[in-house]
Design a protein that fits this description.
The chain contains ten helices and 13 strands. It is an alpha+beta fold. It folds into two domains: 228 residues, Hsp33 domain; 53 residues, CBS domain Like (Alpha-Beta Complex). The strands form three sheets. The protein has a six-stranded mixed beta sheet, with helices on one face. Strands 8-9-2-1-10 form a five-stranded antiparallel beta sheet, sandwiched between helices. A hairpin with a 3-residue loop joins strand 1 and strand 2. Helix 1 crosses helix 2 and helix 9 packs antiparallel against helix 10. The chain is globular, with a radius of gyration of 21 Å. 35% of the residues are buried. The structure holds zinc ion. The site of zinc ion has 6 residues, from loops.
Length: 291
C-alpha cells in the first residue's frame, strides 16, 4: 500500500513548508466508514490537516483535538492527532453526496454550512489550550488559514484537497501548508501571496506528481529538514471506555445496573465495540461503595 508521506522543510530562512500525500490515509478512512464522496472529502481534508498539525507538537504526550461543529448536513467532524504522525477522526454524517451545480465540484462548504472550528491542545497534566474561530467558507482550507492568522498570528497558506474518483475511491489527497517564521520581511509575504494566487489545487498536483516534484515546481530549491509517515491509528481500549462509563452519575449507573443488560459502547473512531456485563457494573458500584 502507498505510504502517507510528509516532507517538512524550508524555502529560504523565513518560510517553512509541510507537504503531505495523504491519499492512502483518506482512502483507508473512506473504506472504514463507507463514506459518500462529500463526507469523504470533508473528513479527508480535516484529517489530513490534523495529521500535519499533530507533527508540530513539541512533546510526545501532547495531542490535538480538532473539531468542526456546524449547521449543515455534515454537522460534526472530530479529529485527534498526535506528534508521532498518527491521527484518527470521524464525521457525524457519512452519507453526504452534494455537488455544486456550476463547477461540478464536491460541495464541502455547503455540506458543512456555518459554525466553528476549534483546536484544543491537551498537554497531559498541564491542562488544555483551546481556540475557536468561526468558519469562513466551510471549505476547510480557508478555515484553517483563518485559524492560523487569528489564533496563532501566523500568516500562512493552507492548500487542502481530496479528489474522489468516479468509482468513489480516493484518487488523491494532500496538504500543502506554508508559514512565515519570525523575522520575515515584506518580500516573504509577497512571495506567499504570489504562490497562493498561482498554485494548482494540491489534490490535482498529488495526482500527477511526486512530493519532490511538487516542491521543485512550486518553490524551486528548498531545504528538506524532515520526512515523516502519517498513519491512521485508534488507541481506544476497554479500560478507557470503562473510565468514561464511570464518569456517569451514581444514579445513572444504578439505573443501568437495574436494567440488567449488557452495555455496548462503540468507538466512533474505529468502529470497535466494547461490551460490559451487568455483573461488571454491579462490581464497580460495590467497589465504589467500599472505597
Ligand atoms: Zn477506537
Amino acid at each position: 500500500m502507498k505510504k502517507n508521506r510528509l516532507l517538512i522543510g524550508l524555502k529560504g530562512p523565513f518560510i517553512r513548508f509541510y507537504l503531505a500525500d495523504t491519499t492512502a490515509l483518506v482512502e483507508e478512512v473512506r473504506e472504514k466508514f463507507s463514506l459518500y464522496p462529500t463526507s469523504a472529502a470533508a473528513l479527508g481534508r480535516v484529517l489530513s490537516m490534523s495529521a500535519v498539525m499533530g507533527t508540530m507538537l513539541k512533546d510526545e504526550n501532547e495531542q490535538l483535538n480538532i473539531a468542526i461543529h456546524s449547521d449543515g448536513a455534515i454537522s460534526t467532524i472530530m479529529c485527534i492527532a498526535r506528534p508521532d504522525g498518527s491521527v484518527k477522526g470521524f464525521v457525524n454524517n457519512p452519507n453526504v453526496y452534494d455537488v455544486y451545480e456550476d463547477s461540478g465540484k464536491l460541495a464541502v462548504g455547503r455540506a458543512i454550512g456555518s459554525g466553528t472550528l476549534s483546536v484544543t491542545k491537551s498537554m497531559n497534566m498541564k491542562g488544555n489550550f483551546s481556540s475557536t474561530v468561526n468558519l469562513q467558507t466551510g471549505e476547510i482550507g480557508d478555515d484553517f488559514a483563518f485559524y492560523f492568522a487569528k489564533s496563532e498570528q501566523r500568516p500562512s497558506i493552507v492548500s487542502l484537497g481530496v479528489l474522489v474518483d468516479t468509482d468513489q475511491s480516493i484518487r488523491s489527497a494532500g496538504v500543502f501548508f506554508l508559514e512565515l517564521l519570525p523575522g520575515y520581511a515584506e518580500e516573504d509575504i509577497v512571495y506567499l501571496e504570489n504562490l497562493a494566487a498561482n498554485m494548482q489545487p494540491i489534490s490535482a498536483q498529488i495526482k500527477d506528481f511526486t512530493l519532490e516534484e511538487i516542491l521543485e515546481k512550486n518553490l524551486g530549491e528548498v531545504e528538506i529538514l524532515d520526512e515523516r509517515e502519517l498513519t491512521y491509528r485508534c488507541d481506544c481500549s476497554r479500560e478507557r471506555f470503562q473510565e468514561k462509563l464511570l464518569t456517569l452519575s451514581r444514579q445513572d449507573l444504578l439505573d443501568l445496573a437495574k436494567a440488567n443488560q449488557d452495555i455496548k459502547i462503540k468507538c466512533d473512531f474505529c468502529g470497535k465495540t466494547y461490551t460490559y456485563s451487568a455483573q461488571e457494573l454491579n462490581d464497580w458500584l460495590s467497589d465504589a461503595e467500599s472505597a
